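Work Package 4 report. The design task specified in the project plan requires that, given a folded chain encoded as structure tokens, an amino acid be chosen for each position. We show below one input record used in the internal validation round.
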């Protein structure tokens, strides 16, 4: 994937109607965004539809990207995530809440990956699962429901029977602790 600076250049050119820049942006980011969408939607056909819709929105709204408010990839990911949540609301209005003590299902492996890629992904998943266990119960549950089941903050507050501000804090603090845990588990170069 291209670096943030290059993505910003392509977004700016896309805002001016440059189809080649848009193609480069797509080629660079589509696989990452597809993975995000697939984790949320859990269906290839829905993820493909959401990816197409997301890039259509990028084409139409690229002039609204503000570099001072975040990285290009974060902006693109938020477009994809919101599109996935919209699709979930349309196609799966009866999202089931896991039972108390039961972890939400997480989609991890792409069966078409080669064995080495699956092994690397599996190691990363193991690290993530280990770090998830270090979170407080509310933080763990809110992070999993938000990022792997596609719940919005409002849906989380309702499902967890907690105030909206509290749920937002659980998600924010949970993500912060996950980041710290994952960074500490990455081997440092000698």
């Amino acid at each position: 994937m291209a670096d943030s600076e290059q993505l910003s250049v392509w977004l700016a050119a896309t805002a001016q109607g440059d189809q080649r820049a848009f193609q480069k942006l797509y080629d660079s980011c589509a696989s990452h965004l597809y993975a995000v969408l697939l984790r949320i939607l859990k269906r290839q056909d829905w993820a493909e539809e959401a990816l197409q819709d997301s890039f259509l929105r990028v084409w139409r709204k690229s002039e609204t990207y503000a570099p001072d408010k975040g990285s290009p990839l974060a902006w693109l990911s938020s477009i994809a995530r919101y599109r996935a949540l919209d699709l979930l609301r349309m196609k799966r209005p009866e999202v089931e809440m896991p039972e108390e003590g039961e972890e939400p299902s997480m989609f991890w492996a792409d069966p078409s990956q080669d064995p080495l890629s699956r092994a690397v992904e599996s190691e990363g998943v193991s690290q993530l699962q280990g770090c998830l266990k270090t979170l407080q119960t509310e933080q763990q549950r809110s992070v999993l429901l938000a990022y792997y089941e596609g719940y919005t903050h409002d849906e989380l507050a309702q499902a967890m029977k907690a105030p909206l501000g509290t749920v937002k804090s659980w998600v924010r603090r949970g993500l912060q602790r996950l980041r710290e845990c994952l960074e500490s588990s990455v081997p440092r170069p000698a």
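The domain at 4-91 is CATH 1.10.1740.10 (Rna Polymerase Sigma Factor; Chain: A). Validation will be extended to a larger panel in the next phase.
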